């Protein structure tokens, strides 16, 4: 498949989202409601069975938000994080059998001898929902890097195979994405207890890390399983242009920095090539950038017209992107709430309402309600 760039218009930003005024989009009419406030750079979110939500704050706090939008005090037992630049406490995911085990998984930036790295940990949520217990480290995306505190990646998703998938950024050191003896710039596949599955593509190679599932990624902050095909989709930041959506395949090389639509921040192209033999092409590209962060497929009941969509939280230009899909293809794009506020993540509630985490020191959770 030939890579294709989607050229976009930069729209003027307006200071805030209107509350309660109906918004008519291509396939739905909705209102934006402020669901919860008082969160500092909220990053990851996961719904508990009772309808409340666990939300991470990048400075290193984990909070529970009740179904009526009340924000708890910080939970106890959260691991210390490297909360500098883009680092901190990042994604959270519940185990598939959370109802029985109460196990949660967290991705964070961690300071270690030699610098900082992306770390995956697991713990159990207390019966009172106010503490983590039994904290255990599952993986450090080594080697640590002394310079810079950017590009940690850090999204978590569970596949239909029961295994855990984790995205890691290349820490703003491009060559790391192509190195197979390095866990940066990768999608990693693990058993839920942190072991490498025997059928991972590079198991047994002395020149490669067996945890790697795919490589050649820049800064992947979107990871979700397509509920209709079972495939793993990923979204990653390009530099100046060249943001991508990819369908992740076993052992695939996704090209960074060998091929790219992106440019250096000072102007010239990163690569003369946008496609090459042996490299997986993205299924969607943005030029200029939208800075895609969290992603979520929509299969809820509240908005029938949004069925089979992939929502993408965008940071710059700020807003929400809705991609219509068929199987493992993108068939269209719609911009919602465009130019309004930076969005770090998007999650879908059990009732089909859409929740948006804003990226700000005085961050909030917004809810899209059907009209």
TrEMBL record:
Keywords: Signal
Residues of the signal peptide: 1-18
TM region positions: none
InterPro entries assigned to the protein according to its UniProt record, in alphabetical order: 6-blade_b-propeller_TolB-like, Glc/Sorbosone_DH, Quinoprot_gluc/sorb_DH_b-prop
UniProt domain Glucose/Sorbosone dehydrogenase: residue ranges: 39-367
UniProt cross-references to Gene3D superfamilies, sorted A to Z: TolB, C-terminal domain
Protein name: Glucose/Sorbosone dehydrogenase domain-containing protein
Domain of life according to the entry: Bacteria
């Amino acid at each position: 498949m030939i890579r294709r760039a989607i050229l976009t218009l930069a729209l003027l930003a307006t200071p805030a989202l209107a509350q309660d005024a109906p918004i008519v989009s291509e396939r739905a009419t909705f209102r934006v409601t402020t669901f919860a406030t008082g969160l500092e750079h909220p990053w990851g979110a996961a719904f508990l069975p009772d309808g409340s939500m666990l939300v991470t704050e990048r400075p290193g706090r984990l909070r529970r938000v009740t179904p009526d939008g009340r924000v708890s005090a910080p939970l106890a037992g959260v691991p210390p994080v490297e909360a500098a630049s883009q680092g901190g406490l990042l994604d959270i995911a519940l185990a598939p059998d959370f109802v029985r085990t109460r196990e949660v998984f967290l991705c964070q930036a961690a300071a270690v001898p030699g610098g900082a790295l992306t770390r995956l940990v697991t713990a159990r949520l207390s019966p009172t929902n106010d503490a983590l217990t039994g904290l255990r480290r599952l993986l450090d995306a080594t080697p640590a890097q002394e310079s810079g505190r950017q590009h940690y990646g850090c999204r978590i998703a569970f596949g239909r195979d029961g295994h855990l998938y984790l995205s890691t950024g290349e820490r703003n050191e491009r060559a790391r994405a192509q190195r197979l003896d390095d866990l940066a710039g990768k999608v990693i596949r693990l058993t839920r207890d942190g072991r490498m599955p025997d059928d991972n593509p590079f198991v047994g190679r002395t020149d490669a890390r067996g945890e790697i599932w795919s490589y050649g990624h820049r800064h992947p902050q979107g990871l979700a399983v397509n509920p209709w095909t079972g495939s793993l989709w990923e979204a990653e930041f390009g530099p100046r242009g060249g943001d991508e959506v990819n369908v992740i395949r076993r052992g695939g090389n996704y090209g960074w920095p060998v091929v790219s639509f992106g440019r250096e921040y000072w102007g010239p192209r990163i690569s003369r090539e946008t496609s090459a033999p042996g490299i997986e092409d993205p299924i969607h590209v943005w030029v200029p950038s939208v800075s895609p962060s969290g992603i979520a497929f929509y299969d809820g009941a509240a908005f029938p017209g949004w069925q089979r969509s992939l929502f993408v939280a965008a940071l710059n230009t700020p807003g929400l992107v809705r991609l219509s899909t068929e199987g493992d293809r993108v068939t269209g794009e719609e911009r919602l709430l465009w130019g309004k506020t930076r969005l770090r993540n998007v999650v879908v509630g059990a009732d089909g309402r859409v929740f948006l985490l804003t990226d700000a020191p005085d961050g909030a959770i917004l809810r899209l309600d059907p009209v």
